[in-house]
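User: Structure tokens for this complex, please. No commentary.
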Amino acid sequence: MQTRGYAFFSQLDEGSEQMQLLAMEQADLSKKPLYQDSEGLALRFDGASFIRDAQELHHFYPNLSPAIRSALVFHRCGWFRTGEYLKSMLFEAMASRFTFARATVEELNWGNSKVTLKLDDGTAIVADKVIICAGQYSQALLQRIDINLPIAYESHSKVVLPDLSRSLSGMPFSFYADTFELNFNAEELAAEPALAGLQGQALPGHFHVRENWSDVLGEPSVQALWTYDCEPMDEPHPYYPDGSVTHTGIYTKMPDNLPCIGTLVSGKIYINSALSGFGYMFSQQASELIARHCMDDGDVPTIFDPLRSIDTIGDSLSPHRRGQM
Ligand SMILES: Cc1cc2nc3c(=O)[nH]c(=O)nc-3n(C[C@H](O)[C@H](O)[C@H](O)COP(=O)(O)OP(=O)(O)OC[C@H]3O[C@@H](n4cnc5c(N)ncnc54)[C@H](O)[C@@H]3O)c2cc1C
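Assistant:
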């Protein structure tokens, strides 16, 4: 596990202003400290730092492009090997009182005091309470009980490349916050004519990279991820892994970029979904929140209420809030 934080970088005045607003909003929401400039350039494990002193920024992160002028670093973040983590969770669950069923839920009904899940193997599970956590397929299940949440889908790609210059050594999970255009030179286009179709294409911000320990290419390597299609799609797509180094998948999220964690039908049906952008690390906390709530042992913060009014969040559809932010 790495605890180097998440850092957003911008070379634009506009990007810097947006990061400052976001930093203040997050400090207010989380009630955690917001450090400014040099006080933020330290190894920390809590709060966030907003840095607009470019000289100090480049001194602290020497591999950054000289064009970068400001940064917003969230300290209480990191990354881990998800495969290993999921395996350890599975073993722990198997050693406890869990019962596993491997099937697809095709129908969801509720009535009287019970919720019924009909599975594709012809069996059914009848329960007092059900938590829907079906990722990009949550909405399809909700439609069975006539609930429509404004869940949106974005395409998201991941590629693992060799890190020949070790440029990410010691860096946080790094996000380029600005939008950018793909521009290939003549030599690159001659070597790979297919790139011509991408020439000049504008990509949304939040392309992000981190050091990687994947077995795919061996060490060291760079894992790069980006959301390349920010327009919500009508339908979710199935995952379609392409070879061993590139994966494309679906980011499932609400327009305000906050997950759905809470009650849908009082005392019966709950949801823990639209977690994209929050990832595996937050999903653990989300699961604990909803499990406790479901067992009447705690409340979930109202900002995650699945039935919240999205209209009340003024800039929710701003393109700058897409991707990871
Ligand atoms: C390309 C890509 C790269 C990513 N990389 C990272 C990363 O490096 N780090 C990180 O933290 N996050 C990453 N994420 C985000 C992360 O995958 C999500 O935040 C996380 O998986 C969301 O968890 P979830 O439990 O809500 O949904 P999911 O992980 O999608 O889990 C939903 C589960 O429900 C099951 N299901 C769906 N419908 C049914 C049904 N009808 N019956 C039974 N089961 C059903 C599915 O099979 C699935 O197992 C990435 C996402 C993408 C697309």
